Amino acid sequence: MQQQVYQHTLPNGLTILGEPMPWLESVAFTLMFPGGTAREPHDRIGLAGMTLEMTQRGSGRWSSREVVEELDFLGVDRSSSVSSFYTSISMSAMARVLDTTFEVAAAMVREPHFPEDELEEVRQSALLELSSIEDDPAQKCFVELKRSRFAEPFGRSSLGSVSGIEAVSHEDCVAFHHAHAKPQGAVLSIAGRFDWQDFLKLVDRYLGSWSGGPATHLGDVEPRVGSIHVPHDSQQTHIALAYDSVAYQHPEYYRGRGIVGILSDGMSSRLFTEVREKRGLVYAISASSHSLKNCGSVLCYAGTTSSRAQETLDVTMETIRSISQGIESGELSRLKSRTRTALVMEQESSASRSSQLAYDWITLGRTTTRQEVLSEIEQLTSENLIEHFKNHPPKRWTLVTIGPEPLEFQDEV
Amino acid sequence: MKFKQVTLDNGLEVIAEVNANAFSQSLGYFVKTGSRDETMEIAGVSHFLEHMVFKGTPRRTSVDVNRELDDLGSQSNAYTSEEQTVYYMSVLPDNQHPALDLLTDMMRPSLRDEDFQTEKQVILEEIAMYDDQPPYGAMERAMEEFFGEHPLATRVLGTKDSVSALSAESMRQYHSERYAPNNLCLVAAGAVDFDALVSEVDKRTKHWTPSRVERTLHKPLTEQKQIQMIHPPATQQYTLEFSPGPGTMDPDRYVSRVLATILGDDSGSRLFWELVDKGLADAAVCYTYEFQDCGVFGLYLAGDPEQQQDNWELIQSIVSQSDSHPITERELELAQNKIAAGILLSAERPSNRLFSVGGAWVSRHRYETAAEVSEHYRSVSLEEVQKAFEGLKSRTAVRVSVGPDTAL
Fold first, then answer.
1. For A6-207, CATH number?
2. In A, which residues are within 8 Å of B63 by CB distance?
């Protein structure tokens, strides 16, 4: 589990993190800056995503078409996304093409052309993408859950709203980018096959003269409780459920995450066993830890035919609460062995390490090592997990259902 | 990287791509059975059986199976396609022995009546889940219409009726025929101790008896067809078109995939620039499916129902432009670079190599390194891809469209 993580801060405030994985042929980097949906004006919801799309339509020495062709020529796998607080650009490729690949990414941030004549195309694409989730009720259920639970402006979907997308102007995109694509508060991480000193020179060449920031503080996230139902003419009722837990930066995060693991990781997990294996109520059921700044939640999903939806919701909530009655030693040992295996296998992917480094930095203000995560997990016991569960019981529930009929929901026992 | 291969006395094949420096190993049983090996009466049995394999054996209850999978810290799962059912897990090298013991035992499931009835509900939920997704229904229908009387027309999930009517006895019968050792291949990739693997699996499967396993192979007789489906809750319109393409044995498949990338990859292709980049459609792509005896060249369009007719006509004109807009050297080079890089990047994980190595062996009885496969794509010539492009003009196609009303 040998692991070295380099860290350097440029005079302009950009934090650079690097983890060499010399056994790989690939390299991956992630650039995150504080241009998330929570920073959109209230009547421009969808602006962050449209701005990101506009930055990819020509930058630096490349036209809109040339950007795509250059990355295809180099064989670069890329993705970009917008979350509540950040805009993120990730690329992975064979190590020998790192220099030009990085130059393309830096140009998107520093020198986007913002072609005015392409704004309408970007707008139409955004509207189509937004309407496509109407045909994917499971995904829509999560969009609605986040909207309902995290409220304005934190619960916005990166897909935007129809009125927001329709109102976005060319000036809005340019202004949003210039206000938020700044080195202070941004992080650049790299993992895989690379030379740290060479990479620092590369970053200095393309991002050394970048300036600006820091991002303004947005206040804390306060979850909202209650239930909403979205009527839909479907065979299944889709159930998305959230309740309080501890956030990633909380000192007891790994206890909270451990409990979620016992509920949902693997085929012997409690939810899978109780809801699917024993009762055959669902095909899909899951729970995951979710952190939005200070606000930690567990998000659950279950999809089931409508006549069995009430039973599914009831059994799901009962199973979550059953943690307080005890945790078997086998449940704990399986959790630990799954974590050990996952940590070893993480060394096979430069892309997953690079994104983890960036996520740790923006959430914790530091990086974590495999040894540290392993030691946190090894310290978990049935007793300290149950104690944690009693101190942080599931409360402040939010429920969203999509399907023919609403469900009865008792959020306090 | 070393390739190893052994066939046991009972016909079970064991293959491995050994990479001593890997952090993990992946193991999988590739069963040469899928929906194409079913009759209409038992449609869905391969996929249902895949679920039942996790429900226990004479040595293990279903709870034991699930717990042991998680105990090994493994990432494990299974899938069923038209031609294969695959059970796989990725573990640390130290766990090779218990992982093999578990996976091998699972190939001889108990198939108990009570588990069968409970799991049937889960399968019906899975069918209901896909029924709510209009593009999935259009894809199933396109397979049925394209393949007609051919066995590949059978739905992988089966239907609500066929699954409801299925008996545990008919599943047991199917299992005993199709899971015979001579119809299985054990595949391993990564840090594998191959000699230990072979000696263990030989010991554990000595009593398994081979059976006569057959699969009907022939080309489908495709007729030109246009089908309109209505799914009132749908918001978007989805249109698919299937026409004949090369199968897994056909060397032309590399050409076909390169052509699909140039014309309709989800980024940087002709359909991307003309429809998606311009905001006309949510998705407009080309893709290929390959089967043992035949293949499919597919087109897919998703977008606003009111624009679907115009968009579809645009797609048709783009795929018919082999004379006025022949493929260029630059397009070929970009597609080849993109495909080759994708193969090499994914090859860094043993869990990805398992499927490439296993898939090639089961369908073609060949081992190819990631570098060799990417070389096949690089050696496709401009003439070959242009000729395939010209061939699209005379294709026989089945088109299925689904949306809120009869938009197309």
1. 3.30.830.10
2. 268, 273, 277
